Amino acid sequence: MKAGLALLAALAVAACGSGPVVPDWQAGAHQALAGYTRAYLAGRDRVAGQELALARREVARTGNATAMAAVELKVCALRLASLAGGDCPAFAPLAADADGASRAYAAYLAGHWPAAEASLLPAPQAEVVRGKLGPENLAAVGDPLARLVAAAALLGAGRLSPAGIAMAVETAAEQGWARPLAAWLAFDRERLRAAGDADGAAARQRRIDRVLGTPGR
Fold first, then answer.
1. pLDDT band for position 47 (50/70/90)?
2. Residue 74 in contact with residue 1, Cβ under 8 Å?
């Protein structure tokens, strides 16, 4: 990961029980951001909102625009992975003072892919911009969230095949991520309806119903 995005990796270090003592804000922000991620992907909006507010408060204590941007970009990446759009309005007030990598990632999430900035992006997303990562090799992306982000970016660019959609569906299903799973299934349902495949669309709807009916969501 590059620059501002590396702050997320730094936050993860705070979860370790050994090694150098980390600042309180890093430990708090890591825990809250991890909690937000889990709750958002599970579709638990109330918990997600509480955890995100805490993560924002912890990082804001530093006044560091790049650190604050890392949180907002994680929020927008999760939205994109769940087919809720990659625009990142909360990043806009931070853009002037955040680093170039943060600005490049925000542009990527919003569907703008300047090739000259590919080297500033996280590795899988850089490969999407360079045309080296497509639906045929999405499985090579080891991190499931990065795989979903890449799939959503390819979808937005009109470059995702039905096989790629299926890969996104199964990625979300394997992780038990109800929110993106329901979103990808709904997209595939509409694709099948448009193609005249009523049986396939009905099967997708039945699976959506099972996902959305999960107790505790």
1. very high
2. no
